[in-house]
Amino acid sequence: MKALVRWGTTLGLVGSTLLGTLFVGNLPVMALSEEQIKKKLDSVPVYLITNEEGLPLSRPLPESQKPGGSVTGVYMSRQEAQSFIRELQGVPGKDPKMEKMLKSLQVTAVPLGVIYEQLQQTKNQSQRLLFAFKPVEQEIKGAMELLRQNGQEVKQFNSVPIFAVRFSPEQGYVPIQLASDTEELIPLFLSKQDAQGLLRQVKSKFPKADIQVIDIEGVIKTLQDKDDAWLNQVVLVPSQESREYIKTLPTPSENNSQPPKPRRR
């Protein structure tokens, strides 16, 4: 779980992103490496249900389903993961062994980049752990509302929605500039509400500005396949719930409380 510590630094970036100002400039072209993609995904915490040994709760896939292996749920909301545990623990008529196992369940946060890395490392293995993303219900509803407003007939949305603010449907994404830096960023929000906040900032100057709904798989595939310049400036912005959770994590200095060892001459 050492990877969690990195979120302390990322949170400062995220906070500045939400308070940033509009900036339009020239972006250099550079393809993204696997490590760069993982680093971008690491800014988003996701939540697994694990047992007392830290192993994720999973279920085997049917023999007829390929690839084989097992699947575990990846929650985008810590609260929703905790609710699922309470639901499991509340089922009556459990045997003592099952009861003990359910009582040991806990919610464990990991960076999204860790899930991505695991999938990349095991993608050619027949028996591997697969991940089923559990989007936030409120964000699913928000994504479907936006899609319908844009004239798309949508009955369901089977992925984690990502919200991006555009100058217009025919133009590119709105970049921002940190107040304390000249670095240009393009925020992709996991919360519709956060995207609406940026949209309100630019709507008066760009009346056709809107919010595009993307899914997380589409974002990852674009990062993998495209050399477009703006991808280098992409930053994924976690939801308010996750940002609040990140604030509770210890900083690197708190984790390294032991005094430094003297250097040998």
From TrEMBL:
One of its GO terms (biological process) is protein transport. Residues 245-265 are annotated as: Disordered. This is Tic22 family protein. It comes from the Bacteria. It comes from Umezakia ovalisporum FSS-62. It holds the Pfam family Tic22.
